[in-house]
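Data deposition worksheet. Section B asks for the primary sequence of the deposited chain exactly as it was used as input, without tags or linkers unless they were present during the calculation. Section C holds the resulting structure in token form. Section D is free text for depositor observations; keep each observation to a single sentence. Incomplete worksheets are returned to the depositor.
Section A, Depositor: J.P.
Section B:
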Amino acid sequence: MFEVGKFGLVVLVTALAAACNRTPEPPAAERAAATPPPASTPAALAVVPAPAPSAPSEPSASAAAPIASVLEKGKAAARSKVKRVIVIALENHDADEIYSDPVNAPYLHSLLTQYAHAANFEDELPLEVPSEGHYVWMEAGTHHFSDATFLDDSPPSPANSTGSAKHLVTQIKQAKGLSWVSYQEGLNEQSGACPIEAAGFYTPKHDPFIFFRDISGDPPSKDTAYCREHHKPYSALERDLQGELPSYVFITPDQCHDMHWYRGCPEENPVRTGDRWLKAELPRLIDYADKHDTVIFISFDEGGSTNKLPFIALGSVIKPGYTGMEHYTHSSQLKSIELILGLPPLPSVANSNDLSDLFKAGSFP
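Section C:
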């Protein structure tokens, strides 16, 4: 057999290591004298050579590819344990109206004991600004743009829309592997598949996406293809739950079920009407969330008489029975969705708190 002396073996190992762009392992005697790495340190990272004083040379093409692949996989794995966010938007109630009313909101109160809610969630807009500006804020972290400011509840039009592309679903559109859809309850032929017109209990002011012209067209149109592809009537959700929902789902109940109340809604406390709807609809969504790495945010657009809003987070990654005292806003909600989906926070929300306090350790983002 072919034998290699001690010196020849060292030369051979060194040459092989250089070819792989790696530092050769020291002799056994030196390894035994070295301090072992902590038990929690992965074996692949146990020995890290000290950086040279000069800039290191680039790895060879054969070494760079697997390194880049490992780094990319690590980045994706670190992004989030949550793969999907569902937002359900409700209407016009102060935090105290929900948190302190188990009579009219018994189902919501049962969720408070199972999941986490925010006790210090504040509306960033004054009370005199109606719904529309708040929904636009959920999407863009502001209601003011260079070409439009949303101060009333007018439907989309050339004058009441913005050409800004600095908003969440356009970030999603530009990102690889992400998708979105808006389920709006009450859509019909009058509203259009791109629902820029009111119809029955559906109203455009509660659909944030149609006020952005890169979604609804320039000018906004009921027939804009991209908008139609990303809007569905709420009735389509039951079928869609049998498959895979998009990365970001926005659900707007109609003006009865969102606790808003509207002429023709049941003659009862609107909180009770909305609570009944949630009791009927949420269990299947929670079941889906638990099986598909999904978190659900129940968010209110504005208060009735104060700026303190209810906010409830649901899912297996959420702290059970937890009351969060951190200061949150709709900007916090938007920033958290971006972080969960691996998107860079928009400048408008970059300095806002995220919702990490509501999540179990290691589950956010």
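Section D:
The CA atoms of residues 107 and 276 lie 7 Å apart.
The chain has one domain: 83-358.
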